[in-house]
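Page 37, continued from 36.
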């Protein structure tokens, strides 16, 4: 079996399977976990330290590989590895990275590591818990790096299992309901993904599962649109898009804080990534036709998510609904069909991953101290938890797109992408901006009102004596919030990672648009 590793222009030829190492390293830790001696009740240090050690080393490996071997100026797949895994069905162990996948792999590695560190107080079935986190880390990386459709699909399915178990075993009172709803929605959506992907693989004169080879085929007419819709629904459940989002508030409401960090910080981004990889890159003709519909769905997400957040009296459910609203901007950027809009969609995924993970982490921190997430049952916490309040307020300000933070840069980039796209009529662009701007107005209202009710007002006597964040928790919070400030003031640090690839995607859409117009003129 031959492993082909394409060189970059920076580091030259390298024969080491870097991407396979990134994917498989956490799984090795998961295989070691059952060999650990059974710990006494209340002692989770061995399993926890092993998981954090493997995830820390994996994140350092990710940072090293993409800092040294990844060429940000190249539009080609880099660090490619291809192993003929199961020849009878055409399945390859095919990995590769470009500007769309690289920043999300970095984001995934960071948030998974911090999620494990946030699980410090897990006492129940610790070996299983941390083994599931390690398997989840491998599955997430494999989703972003797979260049074979069947391998991508297997990774997409694999990451559902740890999340289901993490919610079902370590969740709240309604954890089985939330976990079952999550798995039903995502499993049924996966069926559409499989059917659409295999339809593309069998189309044309040759069968292929390789994503690069699928991208050079032409899928016009009703066939391309049907496959596009299959992918849109399948990936839209994970994004999530209205009305396929209803699993999300329940999952967040019942999951513990570290699992919510993974859900908001990584899993939702898989949906956005897959839309760019399949709907935009492989099905550009269908995307040009359905892009306006994608923008309409994005607007509905923004407004509905914001309005639904007002109705939530549970802190985590309110933040979950805000995620539905914020992921609407990803749909707007993807639907903008130009470089600026797609760039904004990528930046929004990175920004929201950091901000939402920070909000859920801080929420989990004060839940451990108050044993409640009910907004009406809290008040006056700012005086007894000043550091917690400061971190929650900063993450809320970042979420409402305060200038100087990453959320502002990403959302304004999406708006500029919509306004600069001349393929849409002026009226359509104006209505889109106007309605989406209403969502921007609603966001600070429901977030700041939540801050006021939780941290100010009369102090609840039962919450009068609480312990402030310790140094470990403060480090986790700052590790998520500092990057949002850095990106807010210096967005090029994130944009440079993906700009070449998003520009190439936009150029591909433009060339198909020009070709379609030329053909229409010839027919007329």
């Amino acid at each position: 079996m031959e492993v082909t590793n394409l060189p970059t222009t920076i580091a030259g030829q390298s024969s080491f399977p870097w991407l396979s190492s990134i994917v498989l390293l956490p799984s090795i830790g998961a295989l070691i976990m059952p060999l650990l001696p059974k710990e006494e009740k209340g002692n989770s240090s061995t399993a926890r330290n092993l998981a954090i050690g493997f995830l820390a080393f994996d994140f350092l490996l990710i940072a090293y590989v993409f800092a040294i071997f990844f060429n940000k100026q190249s539009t080609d797949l880099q660090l490619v590895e291809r192993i003929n895994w199961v020849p009878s069905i055409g399945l390859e162990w095919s990995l590769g990275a470009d500007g769309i996948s690289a920043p999300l792999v970095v984001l995934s590695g960071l948030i998974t590591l911090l999620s494990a560190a946030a699980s410090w107080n897990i006492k129940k079935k610790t070996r299983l818990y941390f083994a599931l986190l390690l398997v989840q880390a491998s599955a997430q990386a494999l989703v972003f790096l797979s260049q074979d459709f069947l391998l991508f699909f297997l990774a997409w399915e694999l990451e559902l299992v740890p999340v289901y178990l993490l919610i079902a075993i370590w969740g709240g009172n309604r954890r089985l309901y939330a976990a079952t709803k999550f798995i039903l929605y995502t499993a049924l959506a996966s069926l559409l993904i499989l059917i659409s992907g295999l339809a593309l693989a069998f189309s044309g004169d040759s069968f292929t599962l390789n994503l690069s080879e699928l991208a050079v085929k032409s899928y016009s007419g009703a066939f391309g649109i049907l496959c596009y819709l299959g992918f849109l629904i399948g990936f839209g459940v994970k994004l999530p898009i209205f009305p396929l989002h209803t699993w999300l508030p329940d999952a967040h409401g019942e999951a513990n804080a570290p699992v919510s960090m993974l859900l908001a910080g990584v899993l939702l981004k898989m949906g956005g990534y897959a839309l760019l990889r399949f709907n935009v890159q492989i099905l550009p003709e269908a995307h040009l036709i359905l892009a306006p519909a994608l923008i309409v769905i994005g607007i509905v997400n923004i407004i509905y998510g914001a309005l639904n957040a007002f109705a939530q009296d549970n802190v985590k459910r309110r933040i979950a609904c805000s995620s539905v609203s914020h992921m609407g901007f990803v749909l707007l950027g993807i639907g903008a069909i130009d470089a600026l809009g797609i760039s904004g969609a990528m930046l929004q995924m990175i920004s929201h991953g950091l901000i939402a993970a920070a909000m859920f982490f801080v929420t989990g921190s004060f839940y451990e101290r108050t044993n409640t997430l009910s907004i009406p049952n809290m008040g006056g916490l700012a005086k007894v938890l000043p550091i917690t309040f400061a971190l929650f307020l900063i993450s809320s300000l970042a979420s409402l797109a305060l200038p100087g933070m990453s959320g502002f840069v990403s959302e304004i980039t999406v708006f500029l992408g919509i306004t600069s796209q001349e393929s849409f009529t002026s009226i359509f662009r104006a209505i889109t901006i106007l309605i989406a701007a209403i969502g921007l107005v609603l966001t600070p209202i429901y977030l700041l009102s939540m801050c006021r009710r939780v941290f100010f007002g009369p102090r609840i006597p039962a919450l009068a004596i609480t312990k402030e964040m310790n140094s470990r928790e403060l480090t986790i919070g700052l590790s998520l919030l500092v990057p949002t400030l850095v990106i807010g003031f210096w967005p090029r640090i994130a944009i440079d990672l993906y700009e070449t690839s998003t520009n190439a995607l936009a150029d591909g859409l433009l060339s198909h648009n020009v070709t379609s117009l030329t053909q229409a003129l010839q027919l007329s």
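Residues 1-13, 517-524 have pLDDT under 50 and may be disordered. Flag for discussion at group meeting. The longest strand covers residues 78-86.
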